[in-house]
Amino acid sequence: MDKFIKPFQYNIIEEQATIVVQTQRSVNDRHTVDTLKLLALEKIEASFPTASAEELELLRESIQLGKTQRELDKYLEKVKPMIIPFKQPSDKGLQKVFAKTKKLKVPEWEEVALDRQTFYGWNDVAKQRKYIIAYQSDELIGLEGTISPTIKKGLCAICQTISEVSMFEAKGKVSKEGNYLLKGNYICHDSDKCNRQIKSEDDLFNFVKHVKPK
C-alpha cells in the first residue's frame, strides 16, 4: 500500500483513536462507547473522501482498539509509515519564494520531522520575523512577516486550537497615503506545535489568503 495520509490527517487519526481508547477506560455503557466509536470513525473517514478499500480497512482499525495505551501506540506506529512527508524544498526554491528577503535564515532540515509538517514555519528571533512555506496545488508558496515576542493564550488562525499564540503581521498593498497596509492574525508562536494540532489544510490556506500581499 502506498503512502496516503497527509500529516494533518494523521493528527485526526491520532486524536480520534485516543478518544476511542480513553472512552473505553472511563465509560461503562456499551451503547455510549459504540456511539462514540462510530462518531470517531465518521470524522476520520470524512477526511479521506477518496480512500481505497484497503486504506479504509487500516483507518477502521482505529475503532477496534481496546483500553490500553500499548494498543494505541502500536496502531499509530502501524499508521505512521503511510504518512506522506512534507517535501523539503531546495535552497533555490526558497530563494525564489522569498526573493525580496535579504540573508534568509534557511531551516536545518535534518532536524525537522517532515512527516509531521502540513506546512513549515520558522522564526528568526533576532529579526522578530516568521517565515511560512506550504504547498498549494503542488506549488511552493511562502509567507513572511513580523512575529511578536509576546505570547498569550488564544485561538490560532491556522490550527484553530487554543494555544500559545503571537500576532503575525505581513505587509499588504500600499494605501492611498503611500503606506503599507498590515494584515495579520494570532497564530501559534511554535509552528512545530501548530503542525501537531492542525486538522485542516483549508484553515491554513484561508490564513495565507488573508495576510499574503496581493
From TrEMBL:
Residues 4-87 form the Elongation factor G-binding protein N-terminal domain. InterPro entries: EF-G-binding_C (IPR032330), EF-G-binding_N (IPR010841), EF-G_N_sf (IPR038344). Residues 101-202 form the Elongation factor G-binding protein C-terminal treble-clef zinc-finger domain. Coiled coil: none annotated. It comes from the Bacteria. This is FusB/FusC family EF-G-binding protein. It comes from Vagococcus coleopterorum.
